[in-house]
Amino acid sequence: MNVAGDILANKVVDDMLKKDLFSQWLGISIIEIKEGCSKIKMTVREEMINGFGIVHGGITFSLADSAFAFACNNRNVLSVALDTSINFLKPVQVNDILTAEANELHNGRSTGLYHINITNQQNETVALFKGTCFRTSKSLI
């Protein structure tokens, strides 16, 4: 457990979220931030539904992408997505509460690899996201 690292991680993510208008529009709230990890949630709204009456896949992807960004940047090293993929396992409905939990699998000097599990309020996995980031030499705060 790295207390100093977790304190910095929370400061970085707080700063990121203040500037992230899209995550704010999604209604994302932070559950927990630890160095290299993040756990966030949001409630699905009616305007997020596609033509099939279920949540647009981009919404679930965006939640996972935000969790990915918060996890891979929270050491205060600007990191950008290099490659991402998602598997949709269950449909998501209006009023579902989605939680995305990002866990670091690899923390390299120039890249990082993250697995993000997205669950609903019944703790059912609705999607799995994998992201690889590229680390720059810039700081965020």
Secondary-structure blueprint of this entry?
Elements: H1 3-19, H2 21-26, E1 29-34, E2 37-43, H3 57-73, E3 79-88, E4 97-107, E5 111-119, E6 125-135
Antiparallel strand pairs: 1-2, 2-4, 3-6, 4-5, 5-6
Strand order of the largest sheet: 1-2-4-5-6-3
Strand content: 35-45%
**What is the domain total for the residues?**
1
Q: Summarize the main sheet.
A: 6 strands, antiparallel
- Please report the total strand number as a whole number: 6
CATH topology: Thiol Ester Dehydrase, Chain A
Order of helices and strands: HHEEHEEEE
Indicate the structural class.
alpha+beta
Query: Given the structure, what is the number of helices?
Result: 3
Overall pLDDT score: 97
Q: What CATH architecture do you see? A: Roll
Polypeptide structure, described:
The radius of gyration is 15 Å and the shape is globular. A hairpin with a 5-residue loop joins strand 5 and strand 6. The model has no long low-confidence stretch (mean pLDDT about 95). The chain has three helices and six strands. The chain has one domain: Roll (Thiol Ester Dehydrase, Chain A), CATH 3.10.129.10. It is of the alpha+beta class. The longest helix has 17 residues. The chain has a six-stranded antiparallel β-sheet.
